[in-house]
Write a structure and sequence with these properties.
Blueprint (H helix, E strand, L loop, with lengths): L2 H12 L4 H4 L4 H14 L26 H11 L2 H14 L4 H4 L1 H6 L4 H10 L5 H29 L3 E7 L10 H7 L4 E2 L4 E2 L7 E4 L6 E8 L5 H17 L2 E8 L3 E3 L7 H6 L9 H11 L6 E7 L7 H14 L2 E6 L11 H10 L2 E3 L3 H13 L1
Parallel strand pairs: 5-6, 5-8, 8-9, 9-10
Antiparallel strand pairs: 1-4, 2-3, 6-7
Helix pairs in contact: 3-4, 4-8, 9-11, 9-16, 13-14, 14-15
């Protein structure tokens, strides 16, 4: 550790008052300092983020961070042991316990993705009554996410346009504008310069035969993967509900948990996720190989940041065996909240050389990719 890094750490420990002694902070450390200040500035009498003696929280001053924002931020900025200490101080020293002890607070909260992630990160601290309120909140957010993502998945599997046949199913995406204009020209009103559409025409669609395919989704549940875990649980449930494929959903850290039985309900899936811990990607890939029934009609989707904690050669060997058996394999790089890929490029490149497809995709792009593979 350099002297500059060491001084930066002391500056974070001692707070704003040590600026002249320790110097400035890097951009990343400034964000850490704000997160620490949200909690520990409560020590300093009247002012920002101070809890008054009566137990009521004081004004936020310059900071407008909420408790859910703070929870999500510390989980992204600090290692596990530091997070545990911050959560302990928040609950025991500053009574910042609304999220984990008060079901009324959760029942009044406006469901949103930020609150969902904060709940999933602190559910291990909740008692049973609070957990029930939290689960209701999770369901509200997941239901909204299901509605938006289901459109992408279902449209990808509806089939390709069959321009040789007509359809009685009058939906916008099947509309044949050329035939409609040509066959309704006799209804053109020259005086009004308007074409009256008496009979609209629509294409039919070719149904894709995907019922014999197997989809195995492996999701890394390390701390940085929360956005991917949420989307994966919802996507797996949508695929499962379509009944077009045999879907498996497994989460992993240093062990593998098969959640296929809960796949129909993404809320049940998410409430069983335990974020953090080590990562053994190779073990998860090996587990997937044991689920394969027909390699030529199986797709394995591995969603991870590719930071392998176990010996890498086991991962590459397991990945190569799947490819050689005929399984279609996709390594999907983790996406953060802004859809930016965050992953170990070196490991991802090695997986690509083994024969895996490696990419960064949104949920909608993933649905289209899978649809293209099963259509071939």
């Amino acid at each position: 550790m350099s002297n500059l890094q060491r001084m930066g750490r002391w500056r974070l420990v001692m707070g704003e008052g040590a600026k002249e002694l320790c110097g400035g902070l890097s951009e990343e450390d400034q964000i850490r300092d704000q997160a620490l200040g949200f909690l520990y500035d409560r020590e300093y009498g009247h002012g920002r983020n101070v809890r008054e003696s009566g137990g009521q929280q004081g004004g936020l001053g310059q900071s407008c961070m909420t408790v859910p924002d703070w929870i999500n931020q510390i989980h992204e900025l600090f290692p596990k042991k530091t997070i545990e200490r911050l959560e302990k101080d928040a609950l025991e020293r500053y009574q910042l316990d609304e999220m984990v002890t008060n079901p009324d607070v959760l029942s009044r909260a406006q469901p949103n993705p930020t609150l969902l992630k904060a709940v999933l990160r602190t559910k291990h601290l909740m008692n049973q009554q609070v957990l029930q309120a939290a689960q209701h909140l999770v369901r509200n957010v997941v239901d909204e996410l299901m509605k938006s993502l289901a459109v992408d998945v279902r449209s990808a599997f509806q089939g390709t346009l069959d321009r040789r046949n007509r359809s009685n199913l009058k939906i916008a995406k099947n509309f044949d504008i050329d035939a409609t204009l040509r066959r309704n020209l006799k209804h053109y009103d020259a005086s009004r310069q308007q074409l009256l559409i008496e009979t609209p025409y629509f294409f039919s669609r070719i149904r894709r035969q995907v019922d014999k395919w197997q989809l195995i989704i492996l999701v890394d549940e390390s701390g940085s993967m929360l956005d991917s875990v949420i989307h994966s649980a919802v996507m797996a449930s949508i695929f499962y509900s379509l009944k077009m494929m045999k879907v498996h959903l497994c989460i992993f850290d240093t062990s593998v948990v098969d959640l296929t039985a809960e796949c129909i309900d993404p809320v049940e899936t998410l409430m069983k996720v335990q974020l953090g811990g080590g990562t053994d990607i190779g073990q998860a890939v090996h587990y997937a190989s044991q689920l394969v029934e027909n390699p030529r009609r199986t797709i394995v989707v591995l969603i991870t940041d590719f930071f392998e904690g176990a010996p890498e050669q086991r991962l590459f060997a397991a990945g190569r065996r799947l490819i050689e058996s005929g399984v279609t394999c996709l390594g999907l790089a983790a996406l953060d909240g802004q859809a930016n890929p965050t992953y170990d490029h070196r490991t991802a490149e090695r997986m690509a050389r083994v024969g895996w497809h490696v990419a960064a995709m949104t949920p909608g792009e993933l649905a289209n990719w899978i649809a293209e593979k099963v259509r071939k």
